[in-house]
Design a protein that fits this description.
The chain is mainly beta and 204 residues long. The chain has two domains: 157 residues, Galactose-binding domain-like (Jelly Rolls); 42 residues, no CATH class. 2% of the residues lie in helices and 49% in strands. It contains one helix and 16 strands. The strands form five sheets. Strands 1, 3, 5, 8 and 10 form a five-stranded antiparallel sheet that branches. A hairpin with a 2-residue loop joins strand 15 and strand 16. The longest helix is centred in the middle third of the chain and has 5 residues.
Length: 204
């Protein structure tokens, strides 16, 4: 089995609790920013386009937000991040951290490569267009938070070759040994790679 990760940015967004403006600016890092000074206002980025392989195990998720706050202390520059399975309408996973964005543009992260955000995730959850990040103004209202770019990095363990299946007599069967003919002789395959997302990945 191989441990891998996939990093994506949202391609869709929604205002969940009013206050945020220009929320489509979170798709790319280009100094064009979403902004809000309204306490507890929430925006969501979703439709990330993940294609985690079927059979993989989700190990952890990191959310990164590029931006800053206009306030003169941590409470006036803080945001929280949460994960959603329904395009941001509801919180599915939360690490419960209100984080100071700082007064100069930088990247702030929530989660870890081994953090599931206090919930469970299937491959279908992650690959769904409704998988979302919710960004909320926390701390004190009345001071603008600026968000330039949002990304999600998903860490997972891809399935091993022993989990490969083929159809025999219209039934899926596990492949426990893989052989090919080389020079007229059957040879056991001891290593296998496949192209995943445009790059060669080791299957075993």
């Amino acid at each position: 089995m191989a441990d891998e990760n996939s990093l994506k940015a949202p391609t869709s967004s929604a205002s969940i609790v009013s206050g945020w403006t220009d929320i489509t600016n979170i798709y790319t890092s280009n100094d064009q920013r979403a902004q809000s000074e309204t306490l507890n206002s929430v925006m969501a980025g979703y439709n990330f386009g993940f294609s985690i392989p079927t059979g993989s195990v989700i190990n952890g998720i990191i959310v990164s937000v590029e931006g800053y706050g206009a306030g003169n202390n941590a409470s006036r520059r803080s945001l929280t991040a949460a994960l959603s399975k329904d395009a941001g309408a509801n919180v599915a996973g939360d690490v419960g951290a209100s984080t100071d964005m700082g007064s100069g543009e930088a990247v702030t992260t929530w989660g870890a490569s081994d953090s599931l955000w206090n919930t469970t995730w299937s491959v279908d959850d992650i690959n769904s267009s409704n998988f979302a990040v919710r960004i909320a103004v926390s701390g004190s209202g009345g001071y603008i938070r600026y968000v330039d770019y949002v990304t999600v990095d998903v860490y997972y363990t891809s399935p091993s070759a022993t989990n490969m299946q083929i159809v025999i007599s219209e039934t899926w069967k596990d492949v426990t040994n893989y052989q090919i003919i080389v020079g007229g002789t059957w040879k056991v395959v001891t290593g296998l790679q496949s192209i995943i997302s445009g790059a060669w990945k080791t299957i075993f």
